[in-house]
């Protein structure tokens, strides 16, 4: 594997495609020197999500993990002096992607506090379990609005627990990429509509939320929301 | 490691104590031949729970995993022609034991259907994370009533989610073993009282539940509840 300076997230993506796609993986746990192979999906998913950032760091990418591992984003990556919010996700590509994109309430608040996080990039790996491990079958670099869309019952793919919005969920973007939200703004409006469906005391008012994000997103990034 | 015929769960426990206690463990994930060490608690816990049954099978214990991995019990072990319901648990011994013993509603129903499951044995491992992996620090073989007790707010250690009982939780039995429930019957009555606190439509009535379990437990096991 040749080292190459990674100057952008597109470089990171190309690097992953060139070096990891189609590769086989395996997980071994040894106790007292006796090795066994682990093959449950939970373990594979968690392990890949732990392996990828270490491997990217080995290859010169500066990544700072979020001290709160439950919070969005997973990492801040520094590329060519610029910081990027970055999430690393993976799923068993034989099923629909079932990873949580974020806790709904937490995301609603985090985006309000840091609207530039809407530009976070998702580096996503699909794998296929094999007899002795797994194979990395595909890799995606996506914006959040490219892996989400309205679901049957809600303005966005949403896991609802006992009447409250819980996790924002992706749709099978790998199969039907063209049906995602078409823009960042459409995604943000879907979050707003979802909040309106599930109002919460002491939470920022959805109208104020959007106006405020719109304004500050432009100041912070120079781009129109 | 010398093979020895395992004739009882006490044999299994002795075998684990003699061969695994104080041993170091490590988890490696390799993708495309590049190995990394995994060290998150989630992964360690899941991996140990996957390693132990494989290792016991290597050593001649017949274990049949529950096809529904979310349901109690994890395994049916056959020892000397007799079947035992068995759970394998582990936790980071530097914290309080936080593993779920069972989903409350599922357990309430399962014990009603199969009262002999009250004799299920818990083979429990505590570990300590180390720089490159973990160490198995202690091993316990327990009955369910030896790892539970009344909590501050409920008749049993209970995780409550949005007003409903969710998971039955152990207490720090490794530190204060003498404060557990003193008998199987005391444990069963605590489950009954918890159900009375959280009545559920279409669920077996708690009074009938206990009478029925009492009667059938004796028929099935020859022991008094």
TrEMBL record, chains A, B:
Keywords: Endonuclease, Hydrolase, Nuclease. Its EC number is 3.1.21.-. One of its GO terms (molecular function) is endonuclease activity. InterPro entries: Restrct_endonuc_II_NlaIV. The keyword Nuclease applies. It holds the Pfam family RE_NgoBV. This is NgoBV family restriction endonuclease. It comes from Paenibacillus yanchengensis.
């Amino acid at each position: 594997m040749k080292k190459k300076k990674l100057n952008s997230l597109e470089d990171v993506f190309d690097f992953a495609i060139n070096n990891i796609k189609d590769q086989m993986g395996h997980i071994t746990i040894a106790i007292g020197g006796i090795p066994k192979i682990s093959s449950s999906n939970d373990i594979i998913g968690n392990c890949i999500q732990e392996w990828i950032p270490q491997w990217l760091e080995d290859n010169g990418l500066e990544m700072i993990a979020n001290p709160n591992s439950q919070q969005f984003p997973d990492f801040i990556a520094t590329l060519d002096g610029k910081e990027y919010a970055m999430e690393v996700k993976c799923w068993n590509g034989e099923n629909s992607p079932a990873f949580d994109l974020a806790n709904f309430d937490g995301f609603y608040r985090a985006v309000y506090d840091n609207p530039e996080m809407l530009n976070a990039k998702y580096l996503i790996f699909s794998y296929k379990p094999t007899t002795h491990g797994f194979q990395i079958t595909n890799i995606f670099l996506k914006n959040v609005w490219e892996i989400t869309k309205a679901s049957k019952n809600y303005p966005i793919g949403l896991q609802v627990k006992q009447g409250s919005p819980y996790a924002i969920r992706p749709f099978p973007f790998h199969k039907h990429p063209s049906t995602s939200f078409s823009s960042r703004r459409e995604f943000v409006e879907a979050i707003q509509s979802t909040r309106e469906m599930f109002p919460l005391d002491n939470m920022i008012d959805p109208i104020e939320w959007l106006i405020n994000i719109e304004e500050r997103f432009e100041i912070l990034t120079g781009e129109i929301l």
